[in-house]
Design a protein that fits this description.
This protein is α+β, with helices and mostly antiparallel strands. It is built from 13 helices and 17 strands. It has helices at about 1-5, 95, 100-110, 115-125, 145-155, 210-225, 260, 270-290, 350-365, 380-385, 390-400, 410-420, 440-465; strands at about 15-25, 25-30, 35-40, 45, 55, 60-65, 75-80, 85-90, 135-140, 170, 170-180, 185-190, 195-205, 245-250, 255, 300-305, 310.
Length: about 475
């Protein structure tokens, strides 16, 4: 329209244009002319645009800026942060020009459905000229914050000193220390507002000097807020107005890590182990559905819950799509669980996840022993001859040094495990105990006497020849 007006000045056109563009949790507003945008949040009504109109004596007013009516196109641009339950209105001039302000405000704040609200606005116009347009947009659900938005918000938060038992952090009453490392500490806490036990993961000042761990803290926060899976540790969102410093809040999961279980006296049973292996495959696939690669799968990062469920922990080294480069080859994870290609600077992917998963599941059945000998992989049956051969074959497919012969992802690994179970191997293969045969003592001594006699005569013959 703007270009056509420039090409044919004798037939100039002038029109208003107002557009709302929803991108993530932001609403981008492009506006020129005499349309209007309002936002209703709760009971509060906020105008978001300004009319580009010069008042006239007769009251109609003249457009001062428009599409096609000016030699240069000048548009207003602004952004708004949307929230669930927000309602946006786009109104043409005919929708509000002849309506008293109080009556218009009542129509915009009325608790009606979007269709009813639009109809109420148009119906309130005294002169039914048909020139009224009302668009009503309800925000039903806002997407999760982007990584950049969360990172920017976190970087603005200060880091407090080392936490102490009994301190009150924004309504979280700190209790005992569950774990402490060089960069972070986990504190059991009581949420006095939510009335429940939680865990605070607190970043210590020493982390400021380590870029990898600082980035990992943000990754963990983003994954915890984005991934919704019963097998992945979730994070509790803290309202910005409540939080005064940097920390993460997790539910308090009661249980023990798989590593702690492996160090116990009682070994994990066959069927329980296969069940855990399938749950681990499902957890990795939950991340894969979002193109996330954990990159640090190991028993220390797997929590066993009392009800038999699992929680995958610590995603500080995870590969995040849209944040990391696709060819990211940074060495991350724990060496003894990493696929061989990662040491050749190849990027982590679902096949390298399978390798880490294979090492973890192998240790689950071996009682903690790793699958690597000095020169080759140690077959599981060498350590656990009571287990079926198909289970060892599945692990061999997961631990292939050649990534092309390895399972392509955790779902393929899981199908192999399920196939082994379905082929009649529901119980572990039993190894026949050695057969203890009863031996007659008299015959034993007779046999030994014969052997000694034969040896004596042979030795005697040799001595006679030497003479």
């Amino acid at each position: 329209m703007f270009g056509q007006s420039r090409a044919d000045p004798g037939h100039s056109m002038a029109a208003s244009l107002t557009a709302l563009i929803f991108v993530g949790r932001r609403v981008r507003i492009v506006h020129v002319g005499d349309c209007r945008v309002y936002r209703r949040r709760g009971s509060q009504l906020t105008p978001l645009t300004t009319d580009h109109v010069h008042p006239a004596a007769e009251g109609d007013g003249l457009l001062t800026r428009s599409v096609g009516g000016d030699s240069e196109l000048q548009m207003d641009y602004l952004e708004d942060a949307c929230e669930p339950a927000d309602r946006y209105f786009i109104l043409s001039k005919g929708s509000f020009a002849a309506t008293p302000s109080a009556r218009l405000a009542d129509a915009l704040t009325a608790m009606r459905t979007a269709d009813e609200a639009a109809g109420l606005i148009v119906a309130s116009i005294p002169d039914k000229t048909g020139a009224a347009t009302a668009i009503v947009i309800d925000v039903l659900k806002a997407p999760d914050s982007s990584f950049d938005e969360m990172a920017a918000a976190f970087l603005r938060l200060p880091i407090r000193g080392a936490p102490r038992d009994g301190e009150n952090w924004d309504g979280f009453l700190l209790g005992r220390t569950l774990y402490r490392s060089r960069y972070t500490t986990l504190k059991l806490a009581r949420d006095t507002i939510g009335d429940k036990d939680v865990v605070l993961k607190i970043r210590l000042p020493s982390m400021l000097h380590d870029e990898v761990f600082r980035a990992g803290f943000l990754r963990e926060a983003w994954v915890g807020a984005t991934v919704h899976s019963p097998r992945i540790a979730s994070y509790i969102e803290v309202a910005p107005e409540r939080r005064s410093s940097l920390y993460l809040v997790l539910p308090y999961y009661r249980g023990e890590t798989l590593e702690a279980r492996l160090s116990g006296v009682e070994a994990i049973g066959y069927l329980e182990g296969v069940g855990l292996a399938l749950k681990l495959c499902a957890a990795v696939q939950d991340l894969a559905a979002l193109q996330i690669v954990h990159r640090d799968l190991k028993p220390e990062n797997i929590l066993l819950l009392p009800d038999g469920g699992i929680k995958l922990l610590d995603l500080g080294l995870a590969y995040l799509p849209g944040v990391d480069e696709p060819d990211d080859d940074r060495l991350g994870g724990t060496t003894r669980y990493m696929a061989p290609e990662l040491f050749r600077k190849q990027p982590a992917d679902q096949r390298s996840e399978v390798f880490s998963l294979g090492v973890t599941i192998y240790r689950l059945f071996s009682g903690g022993a790793f699958p690597f000998g000095q020169r080759e992989t140690v077959p599981l049956q060498r350590l656990r001859p009571d287990l079926p051969a198909w289970l060892g074959q599945c692990l061999t497919g997961a631990l292939e040094n050649n990534r092309e012969r390895r399972f392509k992802d955790a779902s393929e690994f899981a199908r192999a495990l399920e196939s082994g179970l379905s082929q009649g191997a529901m119980e572990p293969l039993s190894v026949s105990p050695p057969q203890h045969r009863w031996i007659n003592p008299l015959r034993l001594w007779q046999g030994l006497t014969f052997l000694f006699a034969a040896a004596f005569f042979i030795l005697l013959g040799v001595l006679l020849r030497l003479r």
